Amino acid sequence: MRYYIGVDIGGMSIKAGVVDDNGKIIKKKSCVTRANESYETIVGDIYGLCKSVTEEAGLKKEEITAVGMGSPGTVNSKEGIITFSGNLNFRNVNIVEEFRKHWDIETVVNNDANCAALGEARFGAEKNVTDAVFVTLGTGIGTGFIIDGKIFEGRRGEGAEGGHICIKMGGERCTCGERGCWEAYASATALLRQTERAMKKNPESVMNKIAEEKGCIDGTVPFEAYKQGDKTAEKVIKTYVKYIATGLVTLINIFRPQTVSIGGGVSNAGDWFIKMIERQTKRHVFGGKINKMPKIVKAVLGNDAGIVGAAAPVMK
Amino acid sequence: MRYYIGVDIGGMSIKAGVVDDNGKIIKKKSCVTRANESYETIVGDIYGLCKSVTEEAGLKKEEITAVGMGSPGTVNSKEGIITFSGNLNFRNVNIVEEFRKHWDIETVVNNDANCAALGEARFGAEKNVTDAVFVTLGTGIGTGFIIDGKIFEGRRGEGAEGGHICIKMGGERCTCGERGCWEAYASATALLRQTERAMKKNPESVMNKIAEEKGCIDGTVPFEAYKQGDKTAEKVIKTYVKYIATGLVTLINIFRPQTVSIGGGVSNAGDWFIKMIERQTKRHVFGGKINKMPKIVKAVLGNDAGIVGAAAPVMK
């Protein structure tokens, strides 16, 4: 068995874990991201975390085969450079070079969403998938593409911005400034917006009662109301599923993956919700009758996807 | 100098050419496609064409390094299989195996649009581009994607259906049965439809006069009228450019290529038209201020792209 370290660099915290060949986390640890410090300091923290998690896993440094990191933002993985990361205040930082000043070991860095995609493809609901699309429906929409077992990040790591494919020209304004982006319709934030609108327009909807009891409107409101048979909630969810499926159809028509994994809070709504997305997508994919339809599955690694996925590119 | 044969298999005719390392066609020949015959007969015809074009180029068979073929439809290039080609009535034909019964030489087959994409990337307006998107605006929209110097065809050759990305949910009906496909807005056929509508609504438009003189409405009508200062034609073209750009933005956000080549009859409208597409696209690409915008260029190989592109994958 070989061991790797996966590092998930977030704006709030840095997590590191020792991962084995089966994608199992042996030991993990985290520390606060000192986001306002220099990148040298942050890389020093990352090294400290790696060293201590190795010890706590009962391993010597020599027993670690390689280190993989996942970072938010634009990452040029070929050159080991984080080109731009808003959360970390990094601009053109060669994090691999910097890390290897501390520990001379094979090290790679990839975009964190791409890492999660690779983690899910290798060790997720379906194992060892070589061609996969990973979609996180959260505040925005994150996408990751796996082609032939490898991360596809667009040239210089600047691509794979699947949240900003346009599904409705001239439609809703997106946070990126454009109109009609998939993210503006199918993110969890978008669902909240759609829910609020429906509640205002339909004061009799059970959603209003649920939200009042909760003291707030969150992503669970339409799902709970739908289970209680609320017609307005049903409409909200069915429309939301259509938005999700429309973006998926575009991505499937281009990539034709074996699996599409759906992550993010919304994906926890239940199997029926994933099935509903699958049915809607299947109906509209190009050549659906001739070509095989990808399986649509729930992402299962959750918070661990960051660590496991960061390590996945260096696994032999 | 090494020599290759590129074969462009079309529903109407088969073209074969001897191509050198620089992508130059030394000699080309064609024959009618006997589309109703068995695939064995057609492959026999292809072999005959290859043999005779080699002789006419003044070369011996031993001087040919490899043969590359381009076929319409779904092609599984890894296995050398044409999975499905409507025009040729081919279903799961291992054309490579069949061809090598005649001539035992390195042989590959790829989808013809993908071949054209690779031809343009290597030998087109910009040379030796490794990451490129190729878009043909014709009856439909054909797309080809080059990643890291290689054709990306989606798994099992079933992807890269860029014409059927959805740009306007619930919008115009596409020939594929769906609504809102890019093809339904940005193909040459779509431009004709948009032109006719505008002519009917604006009988005073110069377009009506031009069409009457021509005796028909073709793709040049709005362009000619625009040059004569017709406001309706200007609106038609500007809207059409927006449709083209919307799809390009999606593809660029995913692939972030170095170049986007535009082919098909519409691309002959002039440099100003390509520039107009470029400006519109640039304005809407994600992270346009940070990331480098791809060059948008006119495809230049024209009819030869099929032959040169078919040979390109086997060039060393």
Mean residue pLDDT of chain A? 94
| Name given to the CATH homologous superfamily of the largest domain in chain A | ATPase, nucleotide binding domain
Q: What is the level 1 CATH name of the largest domain in chain A?
A: Alpha Beta
Taking the alpha carbons of the first and last residues of chain A, their distance comes to: 11 Å
| CATH second-level architecture of the largest domain in chain A | 2-Layer Sandwich
- How many structurally independent domains of chain A? 2
What form of chain A results from the Cα inertia axes?
Answer: globular
Question: Please, how many helices of chain A?
Answer: 10
Strand fraction of chain A = 15-25%
Q: Can you put this structure into words, describing what you see?
A:
Two copies of one chain form a homodimer. Chain A has 316 residues and is α/β, with parallel strands linked by helices. Chain A has ten helices and 13 strands. Chain A has helices spanning 39-56, 95-102, 112-123, 183-186, 188-201, 206-214, 221-227, 231-255, 271-284, 305-311, and strands at residues 3-9, 13-20, 25-32, 64-71, 74-76, 81-85, 90-94, 107-111, 132-137, 141-147, 150-152, 259-263, 295-298. Chain A has a five-stranded mixed sheet. A five-stranded mixed sheet of chain A has the order 11-10-9-12-13, sandwiched between helices. In chain A, helix 7 (221-227) packs across helix 8. The longest helix of chain A is centred in the C-terminal third of the chain and has 25 residues, at 231-255. The first copy, chain A, is globular and about 65 Å long. The first copy, chain A, starts with a strand and ends in a 5-residue tail after the last helix. At the A-B interface, helix 8 of A face helix 8 of B.
